[in-house]
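Structure (tokenized):
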């Protein structure tokens, strides 16, 4: 099981305080060959990028986005491109290009 995380800053007008909001999406993934037609236009090389097929557990409306991070094979990687399969708007599978 792996977890993708995203941290954004949220400003509360009532308290005038900015605080981080963390979103986590966990699931299972498998690495498959990356698609050059996706990663080359992003300015990435085959030595930097890998493609993960990710299945969130449980299926969810929230989805992994570019900029989210995870640890894969002992390295921190960042999502550069995400394509989702989402019947009825619920993500059941994501094709993610990630880079070191």
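Design, position by position:
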């Amino acid at each position: 099981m792996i977890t993708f995380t995203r941290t954004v800053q949220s400003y509360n007008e009532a308290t005038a305080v900015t605080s981080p909001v963390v979103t986590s999406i966990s699931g299972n993934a498998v690495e498959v060959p990356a698609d050059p037609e996706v990663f080359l236009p992003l300015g990435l090389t085959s030595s930097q990028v890998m493609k993960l097929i990710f299945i969130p557990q449980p299926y969810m409306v929230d989805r992994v986005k570019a900029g989210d991070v995870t640890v894969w094979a002992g390295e921190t990687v960042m999502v550069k491109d995400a394509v989702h399969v989402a019947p009825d708007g619920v993500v059941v599978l994501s094709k993610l290009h990630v880079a070191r």
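Reviewer-requested clarification: Residues 13 and 28 are 38 Å apart (CA to CA). Strands lie at 2-12, 17-32, 49-56, 69-72, 75-85, 93-99.
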